[in-house]
Amino acid sequence: MTEKRLTDALELFALSQPFTREQLDQKREALLHIWTPRRFANLTNNPKKYMQAYTKAEEMTRLVEASYTLLSALVVPDDDHRLS
């Protein structure tokens, strides 16, 4: 894991360390809602502009998922769920 990828992922999710699984999941859900490719279906009648927006949304969705996977490894465990 490179420092640049980690910094980019934290910036995309607008998080700073330490963060919880709940915070990470909330940010992921919000980002996926924003960047779901289906949102761009009715924004324009111009097929070229639609495909540009759709392609950008696909790229961002892949980036969100990759960043989520990266950041999942850094989640601070929740003390309430630890076994004694």
From TrEMBL:
Lineage: Bacteria, Pseudomonadati, Nitrospirota, Nitrospiria, Nitrospirales
Entry superkingdom: Bacteria
Gene source species: Nitrospira defluvii
Listed name of the protein: HEPN domain-containing protein
